[in-house]
Amino acid sequence: MAAATSIAKAKAGVAPTQHGQTIQGIHWDKAPCRFCGTGCHVKVGTKDGKVVAIAGHEDAEVNKGLLCVKGYHVGGILYGEDRLTEPMLRKNGKLEPISWDEAIEVIAKRIYEKPKEFAIYGSGQWTIPEGYAAQKFMRAGLSNNHLEPNARLCMASAVTGFISTYGVDEPAGCYDDLDEADVIILWGNNPAEMHPVLFSRIVDRRSRGEKVTIIDIGTRRTRSTEFADHYMNFKPQTDLAIANCIAHYLVENDLYDKEFVSKHCNFRIDVDDETRDLMGRPSTFEEYKENLKTYTFEYTSELSGIPEEQLKILAETFADKELKITSLWCMGMNQHFRGTAINRLVHGIHLLSGHFGTPGNAPTSLTGQPSACGTAREVGTLCHTLPGGRLIAKESDRSDCEDRWNVERGRINPQIGYHTVKMWEKFCTPADKGGDISTIFVQVTNPGHTLPNLAKLFTAKEGLDDKFLIVSEVYPTATTKLADLVLPAALWVEKGGIYGNSERRTQQWFKQVEPPGQAREDAWMTIAIARKLFEMGHPGMKDKNGDFLFTVKDEQGEVVPIWDYDHYHDINTDKALYEEYRPFSHMKHKHVAPYDVLVKSQGLRWPVVEQKDGTFRETRFRFSEFDDPFVEKGKGIQFYHSVTKDDKALIWFCPYEDPEESPDEEFPTWLCTGRVLEHWHSGSMTMRVEQLRNAMPGAYVEMNPQDAEKQGLNNGDQARVISRRGEMILPVWINGRASPPEGTVFVPFFDETKLINDVTIDAHCPVSKEPDYKKCAVRVEKFHPDAQPEQPLP
To answer: Which residues bind substrate (predicted)?
Structure first.
């Protein structure tokens, strides 16, 4: 960890403004941070083949030189003592080293024998070229749509919310809204810990004398609450009613923006459970108004627990046309049993009130992974999507992709693949009982830690001899424990890449240090497997000309054998894959910038269009004529991909519905899971950084003092958190950095030794298929080490 110790010691004045410079023996270059979807840009200092210093990039518009505690230590993630450095195959129950050639052959043979039973599970940590390679390999090569990213677990509800409202995915606003808004509303969101650089951007305005009102709508007090002007504590799931209550107030009192709604909106209604889908059915303003009548202040207060006076403050805020309002949300709205519905409703109140389309007025979803937007959503690595917003179910979209990939019509399978929960359920089910996924290749994620209801969706794989798990990883994880084949992966600046962040910003970086041992790039692994299948005679690995699907040529027109690792770096493979993907982004006006333009920037927000002088211009505010080049002159606001084909967005009515599981006599307490400031997701990287591990060494159960007293629990005592699915023993933390209300506990999920997802439920939104990690029923009791547990401990 010597390198990690000095990572954050770059002093002001030492790190250069321009990338690609060497100063005092340290070479500096740019890269986006490896962690969350904020997309902070860092300057990476390397010396003697190692990352030795990190500084915030002061020229980066996202972070303006600032980093969070994880960002300042991001270089340390490369230097954990237990890096995986060679391929390993499980033989007689033990992982044994093998060669790369053998590893690739093992995978290719599994696929060749049962191509329809193969799946790839990736993530929003895939670079754009990595995700695009997996996309092309599966759709065009194997005619197989069992391709999913872990973004299904975190961003799928945001996707379905955007698409069913505007007809196209991703936010219309950007981070500039945070500099302009009069009011910031946090919907079940804790950006002080989850997106601290963005939250600092808001709070810093106050230090300059600006007035910024923060309204925190949440199920527990957090560090963000400390800065809020209003905190509104709601009962889990009732955010649906709160959004409807705001809409009811606006409509009933004739305070909605009639001109905006008339010009730019249509109405839609959710359908019942049995036929619920992405698009619902058309509705009218009159029907909308009638459906809202239930959601009075009195009714909503009784349901949600928020006092009527506070609900009125929230509603009157949206009624004030002089205010500029930005809503922010993340997992609180997305990891939700009705995630699509609450996303739609928050978009709806912005549209209804006219708080949309001008700087400071925006409904904005934040992402938790560095390229959940750029790779999972834009490249389209979900089981139902194709690149650039295309859909597998749409014949014209399939045909367009087949033409671009130069494969015969019909190559892309019209049958949608399995979504994440179903994919792992099938993998963990014996073949003779319908488990028709026999091999999964995991890249850049840790499902053995992060899937919900782990006993059902992951650990049930143990003992199933017909199942084969391949894991590309950097460190040993909960996933590699059950892996049959482990492949050592290059990490962050040990390879080049391109990410896409939460505000549509596409960011490029170059490889800066060598990976350890035999660790290699994930994109290379995919291409090498495809080449082996090509050599075995698999017809899908050829295009219509008989050429290999991943044929790349140099400037002289000669084929570069990028499947051979000795030649993978003979050409910029990232650029080749990205430039092949880039035209796909044009169909839905998601025009990403050319690779060579990105090289010279700290990222550009799409759509990026070429100007008359040959330069490229980014777009900050989509659908708004003053900034979006695709809005027709005179339109003002134009939703040019609208569901109803008339340039209008949809305002939805979605009713409040009870959660899938609620507390009862046996399990009387709500459990919520999430992250902490010091660690990122499953902690497989941040727990290798000494400073971050020491700052937050293990998970805990956060309890309300009254609940703890009832159970005879004090700070540091061990408690059992038990659900219908499993249990976990955790130390108690009372009056820590956050405070849950009575009847609620919170557990962070970063700790591999305390897998709280043994306890969580796998119930998911019927539209987005995203699981609800934020609410299930548990009971909490004091742990007595000498007592026999009711269930086997994880």
So the answer is: 749
